[in-house]
Amino acid sequence: MSLPKKIIIALLLLLFTVIIASFVISNLIENKVTEALLNNNSKYSTTTVGDVNFNLLSGSISLKNIDINPTNEVITELKEKRAEKDSYQKISISSINLKGMQMLEFLSNNKVAINELEVNNILLHKIVNEEYKLEEEESKSFNVDSIFIEKIEGLQIDKISINNLKYEIEDVAKNKLVFDTQPLDLEINGIKLEKHGEHLFKLRSVEKFFEINDIEIDFPEKSYIFSVETVAFDFENKIINIENFKYKPTKDKFELAKTYKYNTSVFSIDIEKLSLFNFDILKAISKEGVFIDSINISGANIDLYKDKRKPYEPIDKKLPHVVLKQMKSPLYIKKINIEKSDFLLEGSYPKSSELLKLTLNDINAEIENISSIKEFRDHPMLVNLNTKLMNKSMVKAKIIFPMEDDKTTFKFSGSLASSKLTYFDSAIFPILGLKILKGNLDQLTFNASANNYSSTGTMTLLYHDLDATVFKPKNKNEKSNVLSWTVNQVLHKSNPGKNKKVRKVPLNYNRIPKHGFGSYVWKTLQSGVTRTLAPEASKAADKLLEKKKKRASKKQKKGKK
Questions:
Q1: Would you call 296 helix, strand, or coil by DSSP?
Q2: Chain centroid to CA 167: how far?
Q3: Residue among 321, 288, 295 at smallest CA distance from 400
Q4: Residue 47, strand partner residues
Q5: What are the tens digits of pLDDT across the range 504-532?
Q6: Nearest Cα to 288, choosing from 137, 147, 142, 136?
Q7: How far apart are CA 456 and CA 30, in angstroms?
């Protein structure tokens, strides 16, 4: 009977020793973790932690109520525009739990292995002053293939759960939120650090695939909301699939446009599926640049509205290829494919109660060689477009953008297939008050080139049996007999005319820098349309424009004196 008693006593002593050791080690680790967190205080922020618990037997550690707050002093400095930084971060986490820590693996091989990392109720609250911006420093890249860490031989977390994550941006001067996300839950299959040198590691995903669902971000300052149903990451094949991407105003578009000082666009974007192929995610994470083999956009619906009764913002707008060349961040996208998509442009114009409506339907387009990196700019950026104008007439267009540093002149050409001219009333009548009663477009072709300052080219517009009238701006139903008679005197009923000679007209337009790229192309084409339909009226308009330019030039010279 004595032997079992000795065994029992020995087991009890061992158990007691383990409990005491566990208690001592747990307290030691708890104190070390707490000390490390609290020592994170600086002149910019303070850190507090509510509770730290470590359980040696279960291999778990939990931290509760972690808060990192900017000091009152730096917030006051930011508000008064004299801070050392132009933003500060406030972080609040209700709990962090590390479960299933494999202590034997750590003690024997110096490798950190954790079954699950759970982070709950995270609030990332960025504090800014939108009127206070410091000169941006060149951001340091973070190489995920070369992470330097001492004192461990590896790390693996099998599962990461993030519950109730929110991100906010507050303008301290306005004392209100300018950016706000809805709560987001994430489950990631895990990450690991693979050693590939002395104290150097590669960051990798444990699994090759994971999803994020139901993302929603609110932009209260801009009255827009962003949402995505699903983002699926395939790390092995470097593919990201995004479903039901939406970016829409939270107000009626006409009401939102009224709040703008300038004729700023109100837009709505809805994309059924967006796929990024061979996207180098690691380079993007490391801030080494964005490198994508191709992007496929399917089922996009884009609506854009402008109130043209308001002035243009007094900022010069750059051409697309000029913007790319001047980008500091590395960007290379080999190809963008757009299919089965629609675009609606609407606009309100002075002296017209009619809303301009122009649609491009069933858009299929390819954009090649989008790059800010000089070594990829030996070849031009190409745009090929096939679509239906007003869902009736087939449009084919091509744009060639030179990407060499010393070249800015781009070329564009295309054609418009046959259709009834009355189909374009909703795009023409609100601007000109010109009502097309009948007529047929046989074909339109154009070829042009343009630079930062002006465009030139040629257009051939073939049509027949044109009949049009003009209405007074204040009453679209009241016909202006005088104007209608004048229009029909200057309008050519067909091309070719009675002499069977085809009129081929020049294109030219002097660019207004504060107008966008689309307006530049449209105004160039419009010059050809007016020269074909009413060449005498176009000449008179050109003379009037030239007089206005001369007057403006004289005023500028007087002002300089």
A1: strand
A2: 18
A3: 321
A4: 68
A5: 999 999 999 999 999 899 889 988 888 88
A6: 142
A7: 75
